[in-house]
From TrEMBL:
It comes from the Eukaryota. Residues 1-19 form the signal peptide. Keywords: Signal. InterPro entries: PEBP, PEBP-like_sf, PEBP_euk. The keyword Mitochondrion does not apply. This is Phosphatidylethanolamine binding protein 4. The gene is PEBP4. It holds the Pfam family PBP. It comes from Sarcophilus harrisii (Tasmanian devil).
Amino acid sequence: MKLLIAVSLMSGLLGMAPGHLPKNGDRMCVYQVISQGDALFCTGNLNVIYPEIGDIGCMYVPDCNNFRQKIGSWGKPSIKYSQANENKKYVLMMVDPDAPSRYHPQNRYWRHWLITDISGAGLKTGKISGHELTRSWAMNDFIKHFHLGHPVAATQFLTQN
């Protein structure tokens, strides 16, 4: 069975433009969207949803309300792809292209999350399950070995070390 690559989530420090959300107490929580050039990577209306923040696809995670720290403790986000075909299987990849830092990416494409055999129905509802792997790896070799082709949807969110 041929698997489709559903997601390539990239976190790293890239260009940004400011945006705003309503005030949180006395402090304004400023959401920053990524640059237009970086936004070209985001396709297919893929949603990456964390508690308190909501969908963080194609945005820079704000440095307020301890969101950047909370992402590490919340666990896995809810992933939804409304255009998923219920009769197909998908692969989800969440990688860091410049780990541990943008200037020293010796663990390039750190595999935060890889899930294979995700049902299209589960991807539509955000209730995904499958075989799960983590750690550093050769992402491009994996894609070639399993003949995954191009992503059907992709997004990225950015944080700062």
